Task: structure prediction
Amino acid sequence: METFRNPILAGFYPDPSICRVREDYYMVTSTFEYFPGVPIFHSKDLVHWRQIGHVLDRPSQLNLDGIPASRGIYAPTLRYHEGVFYMITTLTERVPGGRENFFVTATDPAGPWSDPYWLDDAPGIDPSLFFDDDGKVYYTGNRVPPSGQQYLKHMEIWLQELDLETKQLVGPKLSLWDGALKQAHAQEAPHLYKVGGYYYLLIAEGGTGFTHAVTIARSESLTGPYEVCKRNPILTHRHLGKQHGITNVGHADLVRTQTGEWWMVCLASRPYGGYYRNMGRETFLVSVDWEDDWPLVNPGKGIIEWEMPKPNLPEARWPALPACDHFDAPALEHRWNFIRTPRGEFCSLSERPGYLRLRLKSESISEVGNPSFVGRRQQDISYAVRTKLEFAPGTIKERAGLVLLQNHNFQYRLECGLDDESQREVRLVSRIAGEEMVLARRSIDTSQLYLRVEAIGQSLRFDYAAEAEQWQHLAEDIDGTILSTDTAGGFTGAYIGLFASSNGESGVNHADFDYFEYIGL
Result:
């Protein structure tokens, strides 16, 4: 029996949503404050995925200015109907406390996608779309029940028709269901499906942490009443304990293959070194059967496993992405992201061909802004990263280098700058709960510097070199748990990236990076 390994998308790829178009599968995930927003992936076999772009890749589509960490784009849903792809999602805190829902469309999933159609009077988060057999389209989301909350974070799932001509919700708002689990908060992530003679409403409950769960209800009528599945939750790992290798399973979506099989994608995490989830919430795949007209997840076991039988689909692998980016392409690979919507021309691959040039911005990596930063997700428990930097700091506030980033208040920076006597140095800086400390520093007399980080679980080692492979030790056994959401809070996974900043000063300096290599160990 052929098998596959979970997760199918490693690293910070939460809240997956999937759809099938004939023999092709497409999937999107959340991105929060990172830009471009909503990566979109393509697969032929549900196991091997290739990123084909981002849904929200233009500033006109996504304004993240001032968005706090772990806010921004929540829980997209991807659907296809009559030649058109629809992606619907929530943008949180474009204004303080605000939550706005919108959708975009495309005829090619690789883009271009339309500018947003903002929905009036659409409360809550985690919107989804359902296309019924009669041609009508319905919106589902969560909200505070009109009668009020019976307990903390009590929510309900509601439904309203969507007029695709006016791009607005029409008709009455209907309450569908407030979940299966008694006083399990945060009923969210609703998806509707029609299978046989029933409408099925799949949701998440218990919050997106350790108590996360997937539950389901069904009805012969779209508007209810909905019958609760007595097997609920149909998927959770909370009963397995925090020492289990796969935790906080939930936020699922279903897809039926062209061969008639059913599969579920969902989020989960891989804690390590204790209950620390540095990589955030990742995307996993699990099989689904049907019994007594209810979905049965991984029959006989009921959990997600590291290794599982493959879908009954022809294997379709994509070419492996290179471990080292030499910055020779005219545009950054899809793996790279900015923090918030990029403002100003601070990133160039053409000013010095074969190098990534970052112009120093006054904004720093340790504030809520749009710093001069490009980064990619941590995807492995143990990994090695290296880069070559050419940088001549002109003032004591100018610095550039490599950053391990959870958010603006929790990070490690391996950076080049000037010391108090305006001499060049390389230093390791920790930032924990907003407080910075220099953990190690060495004087250097070169503008060319090689930087390396190796992570073995939660133990981090930092090295530097003035010449290739002539590594010198800077610090070791540094605590990696500050890069987890369990220490830092929030919903995002760790990033590893390159940055350059003048820390409040204006200037014209730049830093050049020759390559960036990431290897999972």
Observations:
- The longest strand covers residues 510-520.
- The helical segments are 485-488.
- The mean pLDDT is 97.
